[in-house]
């Protein structure tokens, strides 16, 4: 009889713990759902690390997403933040190779700059780098050889935290001061990134890359 009562007691306690756990999980789900917009916006904001713009010796466009980044650099050029633009990126977009028009990402960025009224004489192409880390190294060498004291680095808004982390390490002993500027996406709204497939893919990929770069560098 005592044994049966103990079993019943343990069973009741187990049921109560399960109910408490269920209520806790349900509460967390409901709270997360209620505050989902703010939480999701914050997840995206972690990836953004823009600086206040300063008059600089050059503007550097990182490879990838040439349309948005070069468009942003064109705006900065015409606003008078710098008279020189450096395009980086040694990869070739596969979509261009598919139509027999192989171009480096730097050359694609240059094309966007020219379409936006930036003179060819103001543009320099660097085509040896194929990753963010290599771009930082290539730009450091260029800055040292050309006495660039202040450099605006342009990348996509959601890339900036990772870009700033890598560039700060590479330029740590350099006299060149860095300013980071973000290009808004033409495919999604950064403040509502979860509402589009492109935005969800971007945030997911960027967090994966951020972890990878933290481990590797």
Largest sheet strand order: 3-2-1-4-5
Classified by CATH, the class of the largest domain is Alpha Beta
Number of helices: 8
Helix content: 40-55%
Q: Count structural domains.
A: 2
Percent of residues in beta strands: 5-15%
- CATH overall fold name of the largest domain: Rossmann fold
The rounded distance between the terminal residues' Cα atoms is 66 Å
Largest sheet: 5 strands, parallel
Describe this structure in words.
With 217 residues, the chain is an alpha/beta fold. The chain folds into 2 domains: 2-34; 58-216, HUPs (Rossmann fold), CATH 3.40.50.620. The chain contains 8 helices and 5 strands. It has helices spanning 2-34, 36-45, 66-78, 94-98, 105-115, 132-145, 160-170, 197-216, and strands at residues 58-61, 85-88, 123-126, 150-156, 177-183. α3 (66-78) packs across α5 (105-115).
